[in-house]
Structure formats: structure tokens, C-alpha cells
Amino acid sequence: MSDTRPILIWFRHDFRLRDNAAITAAIQSRNPVICFYIQESADAKTESAADWWVAESLLALNRQLKEKGGQLHLFEGDAEKIIPEIVQQSHACKLFWNRRYDFKGKETDQILKKSIRAMGLEVQSFPNNLLNEPWTVKNDKGQPFRIFSAYWRAVQRHMNIQAVLPCPENWVFSTREIRHCLGYKDIAILAKETQDSSWKIKLKQSHRFGENEAHKQLKSFIENDLAHYAKERDFPAKDGTSLLSAFLRSGQISSKQIWHEVTKNGSGEGTSKFLEELGWREFAWSVLWEHPDLNQHNLRPEFDKMPWKKASDNLQRWKEGQTGYPFIDAGMRALWQTGFMPNRLRMVTASFLVKHLLIDWREGKKWFAQTLVDYDPACNATNWQWVAGSGIESAPYFRIMNPILQSQKFDPDGQYIREWVKELADVSTAFIHTPWKADKQPANYPLPIIAHEEGRNRALRAWKEIRHA
Fold it and tell me: Which cofactor does this sequence's record say it needs (predicted)?
């Protein structure tokens, strides 16, 4: 007699039906399934663009599941308390999920595997949204890589990306009632919550959601921008980036799907550079796996002595795009309006905060975590420590980006600046990068918060102090 008890599928930043190993295994078992997601509690919860993106993505996933005849069950709270309740209410026989690679996720998964198996259930976890799980790429001595170029060469030497899993057929959903389970939250409430603030309304104007939209974006990128990616990705006015990062972070498209489509349809410098950027994301996750405190502590301990400034006014001006440097201000204002910033501007704005303003990289990291729709704990922390010089594979601290030269090189006509810094819309190209030099000062636009040379020299002095401390 076959077992007709349901299998639980726990979604966690893998909001897709295709190339989803947990889903494929569950559907192939022929048991009915129950799909659920848990909004896990945070100690100090603040509204973030990434949370909003996840909420909108869950609504899109629920629509997909409804088309298959089911739904997404939504819960809020502590997974370690909620999942045993779900198991009891549903009378499930198995629990499937795709793995997480951050410290908290890994810890929760280990605890739950032990507790749920003790209840008599089979628990299976599967590889999630990386080409290579973080512990699998090692050097010849069996140690994790500390240099990206060496890591990437090793990955390429042994590259064997598995085929993409199709969306399963013959879905059967359990009809067991679990609404009275601890922490249950109606999906309709989530829909209302995504409309609650003017910030969210502005964000929604810039984004689409769901697995199908992710694949449309990938197709558009391959057809229109991939060939020029290496040359145009640094020019924000050209929109030369893939715009896949938020889809990728929430798992509405997988790394494998992107890899196979790009390698099948692209070639040349643009393709190589794009795949290398995908590799950097993999590298960042391997760094976080080896250094669970990456988001909080300098990987190079000498930076613990850095004399960071407690300059709240300067930090706020940086956040609001009021530094007086047009390229930086354009990037920061676009971030607030859209939840996105191209990689070149992420580097320039981060360098300015850490070096010109001498403000702790962790302050910038927190702001990006709040405002980026594609916030990724591994990439965000790795990139900030790279800019600060405090992490693995870091840019030397004495490498200080000149915000004027960066502006002149990557937005030569000021097109991006004029789009986001309206006070400078009528400034001539001759002064668009240095409006304080114009004969007539632009109304309502601030003078530079600090002169470039002054900020650079102060940063170099601070770096020399910690070197000789």
C-alpha cells in the first residue's frame, strides 16, 4: 500500500519551479506536497528593499503554484518552532529543502534535521543556488582559496555544470488544513503589506518579479547586452549590466540556468567577463562559508585599529546623495529610488565613504543591506571588505578612487548624473563633474563635503598609523 502522507517543501530563496532539486525529488515521489515559506524573525527588524523584493517574489511564486492547483503556505517566526508544528498539523512523512550557506541558515538546518528526524520523518536537503557548493572548491593542499584568480582558474579547470532540471509534471497537492498552525500568515496580508509605503511604490516602478520575468530578463540581456558587457558594464547611463542579481539572489533563476544559457548563446570577451562575475559571487559565498563573521569583523586584524570617524552628519549626507560629488550623489539617489546600483558605482561610493570620509565600512554595509533589492550577505560583505582593504583578495588601502576621474571616465557627458541629480540638469558638460568650479553655482546643490586631496591624504595617514602601530 502506497504512502499518501504529504511531503513538505520548504522554500528559502529558491523561488522557482524549474531547476529546483527539492521540488523535483518531492514530485517524483508521487506523494502529495505542501509548499511553505517562513518569514524568520530578526533581532532588530528594519524595513529593507530586499525584504520587499522577497515579499513580491513570494506573491509571484504563489501565483505559479495556484496555476498548478496548489498554493504557498506562509508563516512568520522561528523556523525551529514552526516546522515541528507544521509536521504535526500536516501528518507529513518527509521534509525537503534546498540548502543555505550562511552561518545562521546552516545552524538552523542542522538543528531541524536532528529534531525532525527524531519525530520519525525523513529529511533531505539538496544543493541550492550555486554552481559549486562552498566547501567543494579547494587548492592542492585542501585549503580554501584566498585569491579569486586562483579560485576561478580551479573552477574552470574542473567545470562540470549539471544539466538544468525541468519543471516537474503531475503535481499533486495535499488538501490537509494547516491554517491553524503556529505562525500562519495569510498570503493576502502579505500582498497588502507590500503596498504600505511611498518607498515601496517607487521601488515597484523599477522592477518585475517571478521566474518567468527572470528568464525574460536573461534572454534580453543575452540578445542585447552580453556581447558588449565587458566594455559597457561600467557606464551606468548605458544600462549594460544583466539586471539579474535580485532574481538570482531570491532564486527565481538559478546559477546553472544562467551559466548554460550564456555559454550556449554567447562568446568572446563579454561572455568571459560575465561568467567571471558569476564566479566572483561563488567566491564570495566560499569566503562567507569559511568566515561566518565576515559581515562584522575585519579579516585582516590590523584594521581593528583603524581610527574610523564617528561622523553621523557625513554618513547621512552620503546616504542621501548630498556629498557634493555628482557621480557619487547620482548613484546614492538612484539606489534609494530603485533599490539598485551598478557595480562600478558600488565601488566608487564605497571607496568614498571608507577612505575620503574615513567611516567604518560596516556602516556602508548596513546601508546597502537596507536599500539593495539584490542584497546578498556574502557578496555585500566581501565587496565592502575588498574596498576597505580589510578582507580576503582586497584592494590595497592606498588605492583610493578619485570620484572626479571616475565620473569623467564612466559618465563623460554627465547623462547619468543629470538623470538622478536634478539640480545639475542644466550644468554644462564642462562642469558637470565639478560644479563647484562653475562661475554660477547650481542652486540647492552642496559644495564637496571634503576636498579630494584632503580626504585622500587623511586616509593615507590613517593607513600608515595602523601599519606601524
Answer: (6R)-5,10-methylene-5,6,7,8-tetrahydrofolate; FAD
